[in-house]
Amino acid sequence: MIAAVMAGLDAAFELRHDPVQERRATQAVALGGEAWVRDPSRETVALLADYLALPVVDRRGDAGLAILLTLVERGETPLALSAVARLAGIAQLDDRLSAEGARQLARSLLREDAEGDLGHALVELLRHRGGRVAQRALERELRRDANDAPLPPRFYDALGAVAGALPETEARALLASPEPARRAVATRYAAGPEAPAALRERLASDPAPRVRVAAIERLAGLEGEAALRDALDALNDEDAGVRNAAARTAAALGTAGVAGLRSVVFAETGAPVRPGGAPTTVAARNAAIGGLGSAGREGRRALIEVARTHPDESLKRLATMALGYGRHSHH
To answer: Domains in the chain: how many in total?
Structure first.
C-alpha cells in the first residue's frame, strides 16, 4: 500500500509500498486531518513528496509556489482546497504570480468539482491576491473557441472580482440567460451610468431571489446612502433571503441606515415608511429587527428602545432576543 499522510501540507509525509495492494488502497489525509482523499494519483503523491522535501522556508518560495499551483489545478479536491489556503498565505502573491501560474488558477475555475467550496475559495483568492496578471489570464480564457463548453458562473465571478466589472458583451449575455446564477453574477458587477436604473429594475422584477439579493447589494455599493430607500422597500420582498440582505445592506449604511430600519420597525403594518414606498409588512419589521442587530452600537440603542417601548409585544420579544438577553432575562 502507498499511504500519503499530509496535515495541511506541512505535516509528516511517509510512503510505504506494498506490491500486493498497489495503489488501490492509497489514502491521503489533508486539511489538518479533517479530510481524506482515497486513492490519490501518482502525480499527487509525487507533488506532495516534492513539496514536503523542501525546507519550510522554501515552501513559500518559487519552488513551493509552483507545486501549490499544480495541486490547485490537478490535485484531489481537499488537497486543492488546502493548496489554495497556502497560496493565500504567501506574501505578495500578486507580484510573484507568473503568467502561467495565473493561467493555472484560471483553469482551476473550470474544474468540475469547483462548484462549491473550492470554487468559492478560488474566487476569493483571485479577488484579494490575483492582481493584473490574474485579470489578463481570465480575459484570455474568455477568448476560447466558441465550440468549447460555456464558462461557468464562478469564472465570471472571479473576473468581476479581479477587474471590478465584466466586459459589456459578456455582461449582456449573462443578463439574458435563463439561469439565475448567470444573471446574478452580471448583476453583482453591474457598472456604468445606466447601472443604478438597471439594478432597480432587477430588484423589482427578476423572479430569482439570488438576483434580487445581488441587485440590492450592488446598488448600495454603487450609490451608498442613495440606495437606502431601495433597501427599505426590499424589506417587504416575498423572499426571506432578500429581506435579510436588504436589512444587512441598510445596517451597513451607518446612522442613516439605522434610522431607516428603526422607522420600519415603528411603522404601522400596511403603512409605507415614505411617500410612495411599499406598504410595511410584518415580515419587513421582523427583518428590520435583524438588521438593527448587525448595526453596531447605534443599532443596539435602537433595539433597546424597541424592547422597552414598542406597542407590539412580539416585536419587543424579538428585539430582546436580538439584544441577546434571552427569554427569561429581566433587563
So the answer is: 1
Question: Could you give the percent of the chain with pLDDT greater than 90?
Answer: 73
Q: What is the 3-state secondary structure (H, E, C) of 98-167?
A: CHHHHHHHHHHCCCCCCCCHHHHHHHHHHHHHCHHHHHHHHHHHHCCCCCCCCCCHHHHHHHHHHHCCCC
Handedness of CA 138, 140, 142, 144 (dihedral sign): negative
Phi, psi angle pair for 90, to nearest 5°: -85, 125
How many CA atoms, within 13 angstroms, populate the side-chain half-sphere of residue 107?
Answer: 13
DSSP string, 68-89: HHHHHHHS-HHHHHHHHHHHHT
Residue tagged 439570488 (cell numbers)? 210
Tell me the C-alpha distance between 184 and 248, whole Å.
18
Instruction: Look at residue 49 and tell me if it is in a domain.
Output: no
Range of the domain at 208: 184-331
Residue 195 forms part of a structural domain: yes
Residue 330 lies inside a defined structural domain of this protein? yes
Q: Is 255 exposed, middle or buried (0-12, 13-18, 19+ CB in 10 A)?
A: exposed
Residue 268 has, within 13 A of its CA and on its CB side, a CA count of: 2
307 in Cβ contact with 320 (< 8 Å): yes
Q: Is residue 36 helix, strand or coil?
A: strand
The predicted-structure confidence for 59-92, as pLDDT tens digits, reads as follows 989 999 999 999 999 999 999 999 999 999 998 9
Cell of 20: 500486493
Q: Which residues share a beta bridge with 36? A: 29
Is residue 319 a part of any domain in this protein?
Answer: yes
